[in-house]
Amino acid sequence: MADEIDQGNETAEFFLDLALRKQQQQDVSTPKGIGMCLSCETDIDDDRRWCDAACRDDYQKAQWQAKQIARCDDDEEY
Ligand SMILES: [Zn+2]
């Protein structure tokens, strides 16, 4: 009986873990790092998102520009 419950929990944990991993791969806006710099893709050991401030600035600048471009595209539809 107890074994069955343990197995169920392990399965749930497995799928939760899988879902979290999938989300981390797709969502770059995650507040936690994904093991590599979001700007230059250098491996990072801790949970930082960028290897240094320059990469963070580059990334945020690119995000901002992408937003501006998306906004321009919206305007053109009117
Ligand atoms: Zn970097």
Describe the structure.
- The chain has about 80 residues and is mostly helical.
- The protein has a domain at about 35-78.
- The chain is about 65% helix and about 0% strand.
- It has two helices and no strands.
- The chain has helices at about 1-25, 55-75.
- The longest helix has 25 residues, at about 1-25.
- The radius of gyration is 19 Å and the shape is elongated.
- Bound molecules: zinc ion.
Descriptive keywords:
single chain, mainly alpha, 78 residues, elongated, binds zinc ion
Write the H/E string, N to C.
HH
Share of helix, binned: 55-70%
**Overall SS class:** mainly alpha
Tell me which oligomeric state these chains represent. single chain
- Name the poorly predicted regions: none
Strand content: under 5%
Mean pLDDT: 80
Question: Which SSEs are present, and which pair or pack?
Answer:
Elements: H1 2-26, H2 53-76
Bound molecules: zinc ion.
Residues 37, 39-40, 42, 50-51, 55 line the site of zinc ion.
